[in-house]
Structure formats: structure tokens, C-alpha cells
Amino acid sequence: MNKDGYSSSKYCNGEKYLTKSEILDKEFSRPIEGKIGDFQKFIYNISGITSDCHDKGLLQIYADQGQTNWLKVGPLVLVYGYLMHTYKDPSKPYAIVVSEDVDDSEKGGGTGKSLAMKAPGHLKKLQEIDGKGFKTNNQFAWSLLDEFTKIGLVNDAPDTFDFSALYNYLSDGFEIEKKGVDRKFIPFESSPKICITTNYSLGDARSEHQSRRIKTILIRRYYTREFTPEQEFGKTFFYDWNNEEWNAFYDFMLTCLSIYFRCGRNVPNQSGGSNSVKKKIRAEMAPYGDDFISYCESSIFKKIWNVNRKEDEFSPIIQPWTEYTDFKDNAGIFDSRDLNAKVFKDNLIKYINGVIKLKQTTKKKNNKGEEEEDGEYDFIKAPLSLKLNKKAWPLFQKWASDQPWFIPEEADVPF
Fold first, then answer.
1. pLDDT value at position 411?
2. What is the longest distance spanned by two Cα atoms in the chain?
3. Confidence grade of residue 96 (pLDDT, cut at 50, 70, 90)
4. Is the residue at 316 inside a domain?
5. Are 249 and 24 in contact (CB under 8 A)?
6. CA atoms within 13 A on the CB side of 27
7. How far apart are CA 22 and CA 224, in angstroms?
8. CA atoms of 78 and 268, how far apart (whole Å)
């Protein structure tokens, strides 16, 4: 197995011994080239690749000009490669967090993420842990794991999941305690890789410690509780498969591992998407999250668009305190303890940074050694107000074009 693909060889060639748990009692033969199995089609679906690509192999999608479809399916493919590969890099002690690409946690669930993340367990020893009852501070939290476990899957973690409690486990190893049995320590290099499925946004993207320890993978809402993979394919995955389907599955997973090598053993982080940011805002500002996002889109920024789209210069000023006062009045909030000004301002900036995709202006030197400004907004009379500059216009226009109130024929401006 390498970046060029995989080949078969006879077991017991003297290079390495395998434990019994690492041996699959199945016969494998490489599928006919171009033959795509149902599981691969399932992965394409939850990655946002349309059915007209169901006849394309993974390597073909990876090699396609522009890689439009690869950008969609690639993150999940690389996660499979990471989980399939036994080596653990001590400089990259992270957990995989799989969630839906939706802007509201209530829209999550039933999308196939658990099914997708249980799949590596058919090639590596995977131990599933019920996320709903999982307590990170419980001394027996990891009691189901052992030295042969390669993947620990915390399934369906709630919004109260304390990710910071995993820091030492991810970087140092696992101390396993079972009832009535002496504690046992599994060192980092032998410890399982951790994967978490959830409907929520776990961790704090502003925390450097957590951003380095989380790789968030987002899947599309193709399946629902009313429309399942079993209904689409007419069979239960892994239970109703014949040898041909199993061979297609193994081929797909091994190809994921090969591509993982090609990509330098790197897994992307998809936590910065607009939907993820909105999901975090809703959670942090509950129970006013929905009202806040609606206020941003239909009051603050719609007003900026209407006033500035016909002007010669684009330089609107946003005053968080004024907007905070107005929002409280509209939402019927009379006590600042229910929603304080700092939380409002922080989430307003989070929306500007993560949804409209503007960044605060900083000074940097260009290739001529000259100092110049880089960014789309400044704080003025900090922290009372912020000013968008002309560089913000293209990004602001792109954001506005996605809003239901946007009228294309009135979008022309002089610059």
C-alpha cells in the first residue's frame, strides 16, 4: 500500500505478525475497473456529489480537471485514510468531529453520519461509545477500549460534551479503568484514534488549543429520517451485502488510504463554513440566536446594502452598542443579564468574520518591503464602532446575493 495504490500479497511473508483481531475472515478480489459499489455512492451522496458521477471511480474524481467534486468528497475520503492508517503523528494529536453542514443544530440527525463513521470498523477494530450517556470526567469513561482498539467512536455527542477534557487523552494516551480490574495505560502511539459524531458544533473555534485538536468534517443533508440509505438502495448496509458489494467496499476504503498518502497524510478542517458559524452563534446566544441572525441579515446588513449600493464610496459604519440597544427593544429583552452587550458584539463580529467573510484590517509588508493595510474593516473609537472599507464590497456583495431580499437588477454600483 502506497500513494500509487495497493496490491495483494500472501500473509506470513516474514515482515510482520498480525493479531487475531486484525485478520478479516473474508476473501477479497479487486472489483472490475469502473464498478462502483453502493457504499461509495452513499459517500458521494452525503458529500454533495450528484448522481451523474456515480459511474466515476474515486481516483478519477481526484484527477478530474478543477477537482470540483473532489473538493466535496475529499475531506471524508481523507478521514477514512487517516482512520485506516495505524500511524499516529505526535505533532498532530486531533480528534475527528463529524457533523451536518446545516446552520441549525435542530436540522441535524438522520443524515447517515453514524453509518459513515462506523464503516472503518469493518477493517479496523472500532469501539463505539454512546455519546448521549458519555461523561468525560467519569473514571470508567473509556472502559470499553483496550490495547487492540484502533478507533474510538463517540456516537451522537450532545451539545454539553466537554471537548477540553480530551486534551490529555489525545496527546498523551489513555488510562483505561474497568470495574474490578487494575488500571491500564495505553501510550499515545498505540492508543486509538478518536472520532465523534454530533448534531452540534463542539469546541470553541476561537480557542487555539481546541482548533488544533479538532478536525471538523461536514456532510450534506441528502438523507433524512424519512429517506434513508436502506430505502434508496433496497438493502441494509454491511448486513445484506453479497461478496461483490463487500469487494467494492474494501476497494473504496483502500483507495481512500492510497489517496491519503498522496495528500501528504493531511486531513482538512471544515469548521469555518458559514453554516458552522451560524450554528455556533445560535448555540451561544440561545434563546435569542434565531432572532439575532435574522436581525443581522434583515436589519443591520440589509440596511447597509440599501444605503451603500448606489453610492460612489463604500464605507459604512456599524455601531454595536446602538444595534444592541435596538435588538433588545425589538426582542423584548429588558434585563442586560439576559443578553449582555459583549456577547452581542462578539457574535456580531463572528457573523462578519465567518458568514460575510470579512477580516479585520492589519498592517503588513508587501514584496517591496512597503507597509500596507490588509483587511476589510477597522475598529474606530474601539470598541464602540467598526468601519467597512472599499475592499469589503465584493465580499459583501457576494453575501447579499444569497439573501432572499436581493434584487439583481438593482445591484449595479459605480465601482
1. 45
2. 76
3. very high
4. yes
5. no
6. 4
7. 34
8. 8
Report the Cα 309 to chain-centroid distance in Å. 34
Same domain, 168 and 147: yes
pLDDT band at 154 (very low <50, low <70, confident <90, very high): very high
Single residue among 228, 255, 274 that ends a domain in this structure: 274
Q: How far apart are CA 289 and CA 293, in angstroms?
A: 6
pLDDT at 415 over 50: no
Give the count of beta carbons closer than 10 Å to the beta carbon of residue 159. Answer: 12
Which tens digits make up the pLDDT trace of 231-273?
Answer: 999 999 999 999 999 999 999 999 999 999 999 889 988 877 7
Under 8 Å between Cβ of 394 and 386:
no
Per the DSSP assignment, residues forming a β-bridge with 197 are 98
> What whole-number distance in Å separates Cα of residue 279 and Cα of residue 106?
9
pLDDT (0 to 100) of residue 178: 84
Model confidence pTM above 0.85: no
User: How many angstroms separate the Cα of 302 from the Cα of each of 67, 280, 285, 329?
Assistant: 34, 22, 21, 19
Total domains present in the chain:
2
Residues in the chain: 415
